[in-house]
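Researcher: We're teaching a course module on how sequence relates to structure. For the next exercise, students receive a sequence and then see the predicted structure as tokens, so they can try to spot secondary structure elements on their own. Here is the exercise chain.
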Amino acid sequence: MFSGRDLQAATWINAGDDTPSLASLKPVYLALHIVGGHIGLPLLVLTFLLSKRASCHPTLMNFCIIWILYSVFYCLTAYDKNGLTNPSSPSKLCLAQAILINGASPMAAVAGVAVTVQLWSMFNEPHFYVSGWRKASRRADLALALAPPYLTFLVFAMASGLIIAAHPEMVGAPSGLYCSVQIDPLQDIVAVFCALMVAVITGFGVAIAIKFSRRWVKTQQAFPLAKRRPSISMSLRVAILIFYTWVTLGVCIVLVVHSKWALPYMIMASLPLVAFLIFGTQKDVFHVWCFWRWWRHKDSDGRECPQADSRRPSEAELMLEEALRTPILAVPETKKS
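Model: And here is the predicted structure for the students to work with:
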């Protein structure tokens, strides 16, 4: 399956002075994971689950949960101070981490594809759904959208587990940040797969931007006297998301070519934090977290009421916002004649 060149002994942070290590950056690495994946995203998920004002589409909820798992997997050895320094007998946490992290990145990438496909489908419902899908149950649609990331994770994790069972000596921690299976073909496959998923996300992002701009132009032409302007908040979130997907694509390439650079590891550790900042800055989430500002106005009878938004959103903006809230892959019902 693998050549002798691929099965060279794994390296560890205590393997010698000539082995590059990033162990000194571990506090920063863990801090990025903890702030984004252990605090921020769980808080956001709880907000969506417990609040009636902040709604969330199942694919977006799934996206956040997957990034939480991603962060937890990469921090497993933080609970074992000797987990990265014992090449003769790797700890159970080290072995578990080596299995899990090879599935974590592909899982997160596929979850990102699911979110962008949901956004795109809101602009293409009449053409996107085939007759067979119209008859599918809502549960089947939900499973179809939520299951692929976890199935992807199982495939990569099982492959890593089989490799470790056959070649346990291939588990190492040369970066000093986490344990991994040090077989170049496997690492290359993971990196290439993630890069392909990022390319798919970018493609759908471009398609969404084109559809959004066309709807915006049509709205302006239909209502030329209406004072409308694009949502700065929404545009900024979409721009950051697309930009960071390209950064992630660059990280995948850099890790394949130069696995000892510190910056790619820090960027990967910041991904859960970026996901939290992008989706945690939605207006309805702010309304829940800043409730003392949202309910500060009173009506003519002295009752507290939420302040109104002075800017009326366009049809395209409403569709993008609705895409992250409506039931999964919902098919509009046809009117009976």
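Model: If you want an answer key for the exercise: The chain is about 65% helix and 0% strand. The mean pLDDT is 73.
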